[in-house]
């Protein structure tokens, strides 16, 4: 519902002198918006048996071994990737993925079976005492083959409209940038790691990258190259040890080591649940604490491994509260414009917007205004990009924060001044003034706003403007 107010002066001013002020009513609830929110895992949203109807998902997350993506030397498994991208699009999602090289399961290696045949080094090691083989990423042949895979993935999929982001893995067990619990093969040398990060950063320039938070100097290096970061054990409040947990010990230290304080402003933050939410509930770990922690660190997405959710009203209420703010969330707080505009003239629109979510929007979507009469657009103009609209912020990982993460405040107001040129031949009469956040390539609405008034075509009716006869029209 819109709340218009018409301002003017005493004595019945002419229509062009009157100003309309509109304050749209905010909308509650989860919004299905691109690149944010709930991720499905190894399922698309239409085939995820654990995804309840009340949770929208716009991102599907997959992980594949090197051998799966390159079954023969030099042959990319593009059929698999293309089919998964197509399935994600059909389900209303984009795809995020990670490449893995080192498996901890002897019967399911991640490296390709052909690697040793082409001269690459595969070494015997163990994981938790179980012997297995892993690729030696420091070996020149292995490294060159690995870098070639990354290059070819980027050549084919960089900037793909259905590719959401790439999880910069490849190194360590499961692509997690550590070899803990194993030996004698250890992590690659720093120079090798930097070459792998460089290959991703140089190949994927438009597609966002994220890298696991626990990589220390390598995480810092990747983020300096433009990557965001990923936390893959959100929620652990003591599942591994009584004296250590990810939430109060691991993440604060890794955050400092990776120098990640400002990274969220330019690249996304992704989360994955430790175990899944059923473990959180069975252990009695506080959902409000965990979710507020993720919001305060400016997360955009969460992956619960497509596991079933605890079926209680209390859990659902906490998830809904969390997902309502996870990622960007844009409110139009006010719009001001003249009540009328002559054909051939320009309508000036002053508006104020606010990001009440937890993260920026990292894509180049833009505000657009249009005048509509019936089902036809009388005028359309692109306004500013929304990438700079920041959410609120609290200082993370202080003693007070770790005791109880605070509720994230809304972001600051973002004033805009738009100009909508009305074609000279526009017939006089009333037009609806509408707004949308659009993909600049298609000029089609791309983002749901957190206000009422959405039409079926994705535009939001803001108010009404009267088009008058052209001021330059001659009288006979």
Oligomer: single chain
**CATH class label of the largest domain:** Alpha Beta
In percent, how much strand structure appears in the residues? 25-35%
The shape, in one word, is globular
Task: Describe what this molecule looks like in 3D.
This protein is α/β, with parallel strands linked by helices and 476 residues long. The chain folds into two domains: 164 residues, Immunoglobulin-like (Sandwich), CATH 2.60.40; 289 residues, Alpha-Beta Barrel (TIM Barrel), CATH 3.20.20. It is built from ten helices and 22 strands. The strands form four sheets. An eight-stranded parallel beta barrel has the order 3-4-5-8-10-11-12-13. Strands 15, 17, 18, 20, 21 and 22 form a six-stranded mixed β-sheet that branches.
